[in-house]
Amino acid sequence: MPGPAVGPDIFDQTDDEGSISDEEIPGHNGGGDQMMSECSLSPVSNFSGHSHVSGRTPTSSLPSSSRAPSRLSQMTKEQIVSDSEDPIFITKPQTQLYCGSCGRVMRRPVISQCGHTCCGGCVMFGGKTCPVCGSKLSTFVENIAMRDQIGALMVYCKFGCAMSSSGKVYTGQGCTDKLRFSERKSHEAQCPWSIVPCPNSKECGSLLARDLTEHLISCVHAKCENSLYGCDFVGTAAAVDDHEEECKFLVVRGIIGTFQHTMESMDNKVRDQGRQILELREELRTLRQEMLTRDHAPREVDTLHSKVLSEHQLAINLIRKEMGSIQTELGMVDGMENQVYKCKGTFVGHTGPVFAMASLGNKLFTGSGDTTIKVWETMYNPSCIETLIFHEDQVLSLCVSETSLFSASADKTLVQWDLTTYTVLRSTGLNKAISKMTTSDNYLFTGSHKFITVWHKDSLAKYSVMEELSHWVRALAVKEDRLYAGVHASVMIWNAVSLEKLNSVEVGGVIYSIVVTDQWMVCGTKETLEMRSLRDPIGDCTLLSGGSTRADFSTVYCLDYTESGGYTRLFSGNSDCIKVWNLDRKIQCQTLDRHQGTIACVSVLKGKLYSGGYDHTVKVWRGSKIG
Q1: 332, 339 contact by CB (below 8 A)
Q2: Which of 141, 193, 203, 453 has the most other CB atoms within 10 Å of its CB?
Q3: pLDDT averaged over 10-residue windows placed end to end, the chain, 627 residues
Q4: Are 406 and 73 contacting, i.e. CB atoms less than 8 angstroms apart?
Q5: pTM of this prediction?
Q6: Closest CA to 518 of 475, 558, 561
Q7: Of the candidates 366, 378, 330, 264, which has an alpha carbon nearest to the alpha carbon of residue 621?
């Protein structure tokens, strides 16, 4: 199912100047601040282990206002401060409706024990004291009466307003609707005067919502619905309709859909057989006990047990043989390509989305919207062995070197952790939140809005800042002596030693993830995966399209790969599943969909795949041979 609209998309939310403001950084705390003292694998693998806490004071020692028994305490920071734009009021609001802290008409007003009413965001995220009188906060509740009073204020639709030398004013041009303050968001989301992009191509520019239907009739950039399967036909909607009736890729689409459906059916049969075997074994154990009680010889039970197991093993072998023949027809044969990845367990313990992941040796590190970093032992007694507390907002990025772990958060801090003691070595404040990090032999590279900053890896001293860029840096990767950065719809390449810019490659969409193998540079965008040769990255690219029955190809938020037995296997995470690709044959060979929501990060460690998602869990996947 689709994930929330934030998290990996956090760096799409920019203000008028193109930079992200403090209010606009969403804070996900999983619905509360309480830490789980037990961090374990779910019953899928039945492992568990206690966590230890190091770093700053645990959340349980914060003022009780952090855990106030109010509906407001269950809201995220993004929900509380989502109204970052002041409307034009038809009548000036009364003085008491303005927040004494930020000076704006209050958003989600709350009243504290001292009697003052302020914005929910000003109270919850402004500190431990009342922003008006400075008294220590202990409790606060939502001021429903004032909320309703503010919600009843009349405002103009923002699409009938414009900026002037004296600020924003109502012009009467565009939308002329007058509406309640509480209704403006729902109205503006569907206002016919709102600005929308053409869904076919960015070349069409922006349009008024009311003109979109007419535009789509004449737009010449409409794509065939079989474009995901290789069809490159583009034209008007009428031309596409005529083309689709005889599109040659209909056959390919049908074959791939049939194979996918058959594979899923076979997989369901294997699971059903497994469940039946477990049930029969339980029945046989009961029967054995009854027969022993009646002094019957156990030989009859053993004979029945062997007969039943033989019949079911024969059925399973037939199913596996059929699955193997299907995969052989799809070109997945020999060695590594005869493997299927299955979920072998689930790490639980985070109380917010798992946004970031890094690994070293047998250790897996995960960063979450609950502001914590967890350290997991993956080889012996898989469990959480440490919980690192320092950050005050969601952890957005992690990376490791030989001796240090680096973490970056929406609280605009960069922290270096000692991997032996799991204590903070150094921390530094930043002007902008870091979206992505990676390391080379000597340097730590961090990407943010319009900048890549270079740090000395050992001392965390700033070494250099790359040239000013055009947009957010959402993806970074280092391969040998090259640094690759995804900046909006371009991949920029530098020498990772001399920091000399070498190249810039335009791709077909906004880049969210990059991975570089020995031969290929693969970019995950909002629409597809682009695969380019390292020998000629500017040359023709290969678009990877999924061999599945899914109708859409959603944003690829994360990528990782593994090479074994002469094959390169790519893992891509998006809004509802992980897709497994054979890069050598350029085909999709499996879909992994055990997460409930968006997959934000993936990491390959010691032959296993680990994935973190919005469902607060880390899934453990392992490849096993078929047949």
Answers
A1: no
A2: 453
A3: 41 37 33 34 36 37 35 45 68 88 86 84 73 77 88 90 82 88 87 90 88 91 84 90 81 69 78 81 78 57 60 65 53 51 91 94 94 92 92 94 94 94 93 93 93 93 88 93 93 92 89 92 88 79 55 78 84 91 85 91 93 94 71
A4: no
A5: 0.52
A6: 561
A7: 378
